[in-house]
Amino acid sequence: ASPSQTYRTSYHFQPPKNWMNDPNGPTVYKGLYHLFYQYNPLGPDWGNIVWAHSTSKDLINWNPHKAAIFPSQKGDVNGCWSGSTTMLRGENPAILYTGIDPKNQQVQNLAVPRNLSDPYLIEWVKSPYNPLMTPTPENKINSSSFRDPTTAWLGPDGRWRVIVGNKLNRRGKALLYRSKDFVRWTKAQHPLYSIQGTGMWECPDFYPVSSSPIGLDTSTIGEGVKHVLKVSLDDTKHDQYAIGTYAHSKDVFVPNAGAAEKFSGLRYDYGKFYASKTFYDSLKKRRILWGWINESLSREDYIAQGWSGVQAIPRLIWLDKSGKQLVQWPISEIETLRQKKVGYPRTQLKSGSTVEVQGIKAAQADVDVSFQVASQLEQVDAFDPSWTDPQLLCSQKGASVRGGTGPFGLKVLASKDLQEYTAVFFRIFKAQNKYVVLMCSDQSRSSLNEKPDKTTYGAFLDVDPLHEELSLRSLIDHSIVESFGGKGKACITSRVYPTKALGNEARLYVFNYGKANVAISSMNAWTMKNASINRKN
Ligand code: FRU
């Protein structure tokens, strides 16, 4: 294959070529799913940004359309940046997005479909009143830190609300605007929420959740409903969130006790996953999360390959029973790509063993494994309470550092000689009154090529290994590995660039490098079919 194709994915969303970043304005209209995205029509690097557009019947196979929103007005001559879709009353989609004006100021604009009877929503018309929200000296909004409007929600008073990402000095803010007609917007006195010292909040998202995978429309308020505020922190490039209450009479977000400071470290994904956005899928009554996964290649190398960026597999997202965190799971439609299943009966995975999972195409696979360690916890290593950073812990205790119980898990995109592999695994520790489960994705051996970034990622997983199984699901797709631990309680996505473990040469192994044996209670693996993604007809 030509170098431009080596690391292309087979079932992840990407354009045929060029640069892609944030998912924009996802929605469902007349039975069709829409995804727009930040795209450079002229090349593989960021720039010349328009809203490219694709539609799908199943969120898996996508058809490309012409760009939906591109520079054409004063309010966006220098770029059409991120934004969201809102369904106005009576199935009436409206897009709010950030435009870059002739003075390179960030302003907020509105676009609506030209023809509501077209389910593909090919043509978008910009409001003659654009820009609708502007930075001015009076409102103290910094014109280079004012962007990415959310999906709006409708209050009981009949007014729409939307938030826009902002910072003032080092204080990150979710600025609140209100409107009766979606055209004339007034900035509220107080932001919905803000935190000192966090820097710019890009791509905010604000939505209701309940502890059921049945999703809630964005305007839902009431008993048993919690709210999530997510921001994309420009400083760290992490999508962090807090769970709390939306005090709608005051129009402020009140995070749960303890959740306020720096979003208490909760992340959608502890690997690569940024500028994400949810939408309410009214067709299947669920909330779905899209997120952008950038390259781990040097700029020079992604320019040479002619493309950059993929979107993560859309994830169902809801509130965990504990109320303390969210849970995510790949949408069930992805299972339609599963081909040949390889299943393993319950077996022991002896200390020191590495077993190949045969019979699948390991470069594009879905694997789901559950471990039982309850009877294997005598030798567990002690947990040092000063270990507060799971990523650091995973990089110090990688896949080749032997422990009491763990590391055990998967080696994916592995070469036959195991010179190359990405290890996704667990390690268990004993703290004062409980066990601590660490989930890691170790990229340090992922490629013989020295150049890509191979940072190791890690997360603590809120699962009790004494009473629960430890499950791990990984979606493997040539240069991307999306892993879901504890049935979606911790997610880690990584980009890797094997030189040997390519195509039919890639292997999948299950391994246990800990001193204790562990039991595999179930394991299934599938080859994944190619999805049809943005192919030109
Ligand atoms: C996030 C972001 C947004 C901005 C867009 C520009 O990745 O920087 O804040 O609107 O990308 O492409």
Description:
The protein has two domains: 18-332, Glycosyl hydrolase domain, family 43 (Tachylectin-2, Chain A, 5 Propeller); 338-528, Jelly Rolls (Sandwich). Helix content is 3%, strand content 46%. It is built from two helices and 38 strands. Strands 25, 26, 28, 34, 35, 36 and 38 form a seven-stranded antiparallel β-sheet that branches. Strands 27, 29, 30, 31, 32, 33 and 37 form a seven-stranded mixed β-sheet that branches. The mean pLDDT is 96. Bound molecules: beta-D-fructofuranose. Residues 21-22, 38, 49, 81-82, 98, 147-148, 202-203, 275 line the site of beta-D-fructofuranose. Beta-D-fructofuranose is lined by residues 21-22, 38, 49, 81-82, 98, 147-148, 202-203, 275.
Walk me through the topology.
Elements: E1 18-29, E2 32-40, E3 50-56, E4 63-69, E5 80-88, E6 92-100, E7 106-113, E8 124-126, E9 146-147, E10 153-154, E11 160-168, E12 171-179, E13 186-187, E14 193-195, E15 201-209, E16 226-233, E17 238-247, E18 252-255, E19 274-281, E20 286-293, H1 299-305, E21 307-308, E22 310-311, E23 315-319, E24 326-330, E25 338-344, E26 347-349, E27 353-356, E28 364-372, E29 381-382, H2 390-396, E30 405-414, E31 422-430, E32 435-442, E33 457-461, E34 470-477, E35 480-485, E36 490-495, E37 507-512, E38 518-528
